[in-house]
Amino acid sequence: MKNTTSSAERMAEDSRGKTDGINAQPTKASHVLHRSLLADPATVVSASGSYINLSTGQRILDGCTGAAVAIIGHGSEEVQSAVRDQMAKVSYAHTLAFTTSAAEDLADMLLRNKPHGLCKAYFVCSGSEAMDSALKLARQYHVERGQPQRTRIVARQQAYHGNTIGAMSVGSNVARKAPYMGVLTLPNVSHVSPAYTYRSQLQGETEESYAARLVQELDHEFRSLGPENVMAFVAETVCGATLGCATAPRGYFQGVRRLCSQYGILLILDEVMCGSGRCGTYFAFEQEGDGVYPDLLTLGKGLGGGYSPIAGVLVHEKVVGGLRQGSGSFVHGHTYQAHPVACAASLAVQRVLERDDLVRRCAVKGEWLEGALRRELGGRRFVGDVRGRGFFWALEFVADKASKEPFSPEVHFSGRVRDEAQRLGLAVYPGTGTVDGTRGDHIIVAPPYNVSDAELEDVVRLLKEAYEVVEKEVAAEMTP
């Protein structure tokens, strides 16, 4: 392999030193503890619609909405007005004694007609808090029903559920867990295989057979632990940033739901990233077949659309009934839960979503986006897989398409695509460790639901241009 320095590496080196930041710039020493301690990230000075503007004067098309967050784009005057109105009324109320119309109206909007048996909402500030809250609800439900022996949790490999101790423990993002293993991770969690069709479906195996094999593995895990000892199974309906938009094979979640119901195990579906319409239906699980529903559902990024720090747990009537017949309360709380300003902002976002029929648009234009990504990039030398739904798509990169051999982490393939795309004026979301936590690269495309047709075309065009630069560089480096 040639010892060369790519333009992406040179750009990254010039702007951020040896870090993983994005367009970081030499600045005066910052007192903020950024994700990198070696250089500061670029400064955003304004954002509007599908674009963010940097202090350097560069205009960036937001092709990933941060981390699939800004679902209605940036700078909505309607949301700003709702926030101002709420702050003029009440900016904070402690939920131990009070509620607000903002929280009540948001819950009413999400849960009118009791969708799929979901009947209560618990609002917090982040997806990590939402997952911890869901785990506590699951545990308390079993305790209230006289089954305190249910302490085990089963989740899936190559999943991410948050950064708090509970959420990190059920997740399996290797890099984020590594410093804390055995010290700040729970010992009562085990993991089964992810639904990773690209790498795990056997040659000649049908989609249904693959799903059945995964469900059988889960059944074996439940039986090995003793089903009566398991309190919950946790899964992303569509995998997020760790595995890159991987969807389950047909019939998988139907089988999972049957198992959980059979054994009295609660099903927790994590839709912090893939929910709130991102996959073309408001709840991503609505595309998984008849009979699929969660006992607890986490929502987050699209709930507030980036206008407020908010996430939530939607609770099935079965779980609510268990607590009501027991102690009658949830033994958990946060100072800022159901924060009225956050709820008002989220409510305004959800109203725009509904009024402008953006979930449907996400589904319809998502088909165009899929076709464009497959047509323009699917056949390229280092693109192994194109997968996703709605406005939630990933490209997995490989060194060899025939063997699906991933790049060495030292190549930094996804990071270089991200850097080159941003140099060209496009933000995409990179991922590493796709295959096993260490090896593997992907990038995620997740634009605002109201992105214009022309902007959507620009997302694909700029991504293709960025990829072509990196492909050429890496191919040259691989030449003996």
What does this structure look like?
This protein is 39% helix and 16% strand. It has helices at 7-16, 65-68, 77-89, 101-111, 127-144, 165-170, 174-177, 197-200, 207-225, 252-263, 301-304, 317-325, 340-355, 358-377, 413-424, 453-478, and strands spanning 44-48, 51-54, 59-62, 118-124, 152-156, 189-192, 230-236, 266-271, 296-299, 311-316, 383-389, 392-397, 426-427, 429-432, 441-445. The protein contains 16 helices and 15 strands. The chain has 480 residues and is α/β, with parallel strands linked by helices. The model is unreliable at 1-22 (pLDDT under 50). It starts with 6 loop residues before the first helix and ends with a helix. Helix 1 crosses helix 15 (413-424), helix 4 runs parallel beside helix 13 (340-355) and helix 14 (358-377) runs parallel beside helix 16 (453-478). Strands 4-10-9-8-7-5-6 form a 7-stranded mixed sheet, sandwiched between helices. It is globular.
List the helices and strands and how they pair.
Elements: H1 7-16, E1 44-48, E2 51-54, E3 59-62, H2 65-68, H3 77-89, H4 101-111, E4 118-124, H5 127-144, E5 152-156, H6 165-170, H7 174-177, E6 189-192, H8 197-200, H9 207-225, E7 230-236, H10 252-263, E8 266-271, E9 296-299, H11 301-304, E10 311-316, H12 317-325, H13 340-355, H14 358-377, E11 383-389, E12 392-397, H15 413-424, E13 426-427, E14 429-432, E15 441-445, H16 453-478
Parallel strand pairs: 3-13, 5-6, 5-7, 7-8, 8-9
Antiparallel strand pairs: 1-2, 2-3, 4-10, 9-10, 11-12, 12-15, 14-15
Helix pairs in contact: 1-15, 3-13, 4-13, 5-12, 9-10, 14-16, 15-16
